[in-house]
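hey
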């Protein structure tokens, strides 16, 4: 007698450069699940991607209808148990494809709202979620008029970018116009002409990692961001958990996050929320329909050494989850900021930094001899430092000490000038 039960197969959707694919593939392997990579690959690079990537389903997320059709055709031949979006673009595509296949999913409208900051703000306002006041402008508007009609301090941001790219604080009309002009090339590159102007909310910032189940929120981790994020740019560096905020504040953060997710229509799967907290309580900055980005999830282990990715995959596949409790230690990660634009030509101090107490690992992800760009134009980091210890204070101290021992050599980019006959 043969077992006719179809194999568990998951389709992961992400951009080709996403950090998130590797840990999800590892989680699938641990669970004995077949994994297919539905990568957003530009058509000219499909042949190269096929040669380099096993179990690849190349897609072009800019053509949503075609990508959905390709996923449906693939699933007709090789049935898919679940579709999981690993980054912002993947989450939207996953919702659309899951709807087409009749798989459990968030609504496409909800995931779209998680990518569009203006729509998100409108839904927050409609749902009475505490969040910044806002106004939408377009780049063919007059920045001088926009500056006159704005409250200060304010924050200018693109509606669709992530990682704090293009986010700039302005404290007056002059800074507003300068920020507007600085955003022009960033938005032109992304083919977007919308700019959201929000009230600046003072206070400490936190990040909440959660899992939605039928509209209920399970808080997996709450990270403090010990570095002040007051502008003019908003480069995230330190994430440390458990949070040192009072229990009452943490409960209010969870309540505000759930209210925000509900207002957006998110009901299932991972969410990553950013909030500001001040004397008035928590203010929701944004909620993403995905898990934490970069390599930061390496800090999170649950129960008997279960990764965040395994929890997400178990929920998506309908497999049992033994516990959602974090292992009982403090953890933290530093996203190493880019101090200047240029070409990264060297890194020193790695061995000394890695030998510091409580440091678990250091990964330099920026390749040598390649350009690096800081915020607000850039959207990446030089790498990640990981630490664990008995207290959040000790972890924070260790991360700062290790970072202080790293030296990044960044040389100015040289322009190659070709002369006639050369």
């Amino acid at each position: 007698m043969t077992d006719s039960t179809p194999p568990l197969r998951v389709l992961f959707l992400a951009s080709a450069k996403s950090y998130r694919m590797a840990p999800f593939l590892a989680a699938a392997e641990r669970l004995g699940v077949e994994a297919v990579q539905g990568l957003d690959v530009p058509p000219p690079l499909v042949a190269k991607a096929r040669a380099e990537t096993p179990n690849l389903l190349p897609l072009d997320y800019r053509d949503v209808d075609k990508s959905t059709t390709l996923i449906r055709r693939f699933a007709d031949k090789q049935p898919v148990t679940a579709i999981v979006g690993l980054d912002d673009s993947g989450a939207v595509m996953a919702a659309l494809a899951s709807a087409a296949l009749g798989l459990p999913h968030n609504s496409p409208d909800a995931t779209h709202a998680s990518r569009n900051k203006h729509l998100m703000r409108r839904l927050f306002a409609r749902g009475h979620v505490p969040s910044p006041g806002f106004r939408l402008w377009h780049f063919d508007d007059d920045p001088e008029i926009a500056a006159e009609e704005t409250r200060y301090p304010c924050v200018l941001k693109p509606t669709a970018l992530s990682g704090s790219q293009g986010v700039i604080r302005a404290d007056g009309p002059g800074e507003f116009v300068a920020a507007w002009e600085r955003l022009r090339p960033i938005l032109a590159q992304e083919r977007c002409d919308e700019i959201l102007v929000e009230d600046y909310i003072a206070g400490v910032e936190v990040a909440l990692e959660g899992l939605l189940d039928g509209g209920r929120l399970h808080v997996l981790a709450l990270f403090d961001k010990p570095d002040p994020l007051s502008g003019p740019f908003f480069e995230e560096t330190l994430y440390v958990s458990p949070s040192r905020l009072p229990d009452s504040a943490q409960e209010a953060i969870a309540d505000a996050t759930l209210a925000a997710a509900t207002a957006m229509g998110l009901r299932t799967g991972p969410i990553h929320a950013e909030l500001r907290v001040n004397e008035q309580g928590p203010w929701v900055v944004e909620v993403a329909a995905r898990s934490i980005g970069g390599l930061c999830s390496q800090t999170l282990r649950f129960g008997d050494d279960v990764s965040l990715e395994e929890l997400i995959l178990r929920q998506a596949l309908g497999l049992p989850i033994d516990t959602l409790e974090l292992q009982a230690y403090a953890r933290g990660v530093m996203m190493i900021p880019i101090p200047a634009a240029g070409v990264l030509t060297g890194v020193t101090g790695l061995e000394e930094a890695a030998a510091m107490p409580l440091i678990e690992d250091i990964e330099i992800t920026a390749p040598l001899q390649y350009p690096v760009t800081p915020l607000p134009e850039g959207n990446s980091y030089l790498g990640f430092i990981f630490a664990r210890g008995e207290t959040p204070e000790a972890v924070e101290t260790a991360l700062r000490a290790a970072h202080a021992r790293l030296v990044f050599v960044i040389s100015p980019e040289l322009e190659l000038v070709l002369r006639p006959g050369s």
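Residues 9-106 form a domain with the Rossmann fold fold (CATH 3.40.50.20). DSSP finds twelve helices and 20 strands in the chain.
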